[in-house]
Amino acid sequence: MSYQLFYSDRSAAQGVRLILEELDQAYELIETDIKSQGPRPPELLAVNPNGLVPVLIYEEGPIYECGAIVTFLCDRHSEYGLAPAVGDRYRGLFLQWLFFFSSSLQNAFSMTYRANRFSALDSGYPGIEQQGLKKLMSLWQIVDDAIGEKPWMLDELFSAVDIYLFMLSTWLSDQYGHPDLAKFSNVERIADKVKQRPSVAKVYPTIIGAT
């Protein structure tokens, strides 16, 4: 079995790539330009009409939306234990945090990185960016408080939500006025532990090389 992944650095596709590495799955990266202002590549639009990555291609066809892809992969390769099984006491929390990250937190980042998606007028961008920064601060605080003294997001169980947390922590940028990760000590603690994993060294060589 081998997968194809429509991929771009500094996107949610890096999180899916980390999952594939953790699951020890063969995959091919389809490098995709999503940063230019020009039209999206036709091959990307053919598998995701939204023109966004990640898109995972498997034997039955394409899947898009990062949260859906992560859930699909973890359930399909359940022997690796990256997601609680259906019926497990932690299954609900796993889904809660996975979709909190993939919707609420990612949306807040988008408001700061790409305000043009939220307003047709340039004059509206500063207000959207400011609101995005406020949301980032409050949402990360919610995560930090929920972690408390637990070793992982799901207590003793390392899971895909910890990987997702790490991915999003790498999006914090001084350039955009984002809060410093150090403000959220519990989040930083989990992100630092995930950073030690071999999968991160492969997918984020620049980050690892800078530490």
Care to describe what's here?
This protein is an alpha+beta fold and 211 residues long. 50% of the residues lie in helices and 9% in strands. A 4-stranded mixed β-sheet has the order 2-1-3-4, with helices on one face. The chain starts with a strand and ends with a helix. The model has no long low-confidence stretch (mean pLDDT 94).
Brief summary of the model shown:
This protein has 211 residues and is α+β, with helices and mostly antiparallel strands. It has helices at residues 13-22, 42-47, 66-76, 91-113, 125-147, 160-169, 185-195, 198-203, 205-210, and strands spanning 2-7, 26-31, 55-58, 61-64.
CATH class call of the largest domain: Mainly Alpha
Number of helical segments with 4 or more residues: 9
Model regions low in confidence, pLDDT < 50 over at least 5 residues: none
Radius of gyration: 17 Å
Strand order of the largest sheet: 2-1-3-4
Subunit arrangement of the protein = single chain
Outline type: globular
- Main sheet attributes: strand count, strand direction, barrel closure: 4 strands, mixed
Helix content: 40-55%
Q: How many discrete domains? A: 2
Structural class: alpha+beta
| CATH architectural label of the largest domain | Up-down Bundle
Between the first and last Cα atoms, what is the distance in angstroms?
35 Å
The CATH topology assignment of the largest domain is Glutathione S-transferase Yfyf (Class Pi), Chain A, domain 2
Portion in beta strands: 5-15%
| SSE string, helices as H and strands as E | EHEHEEHHHHHHH
DSSP, total strands: 4
Overall pLDDT level: 94
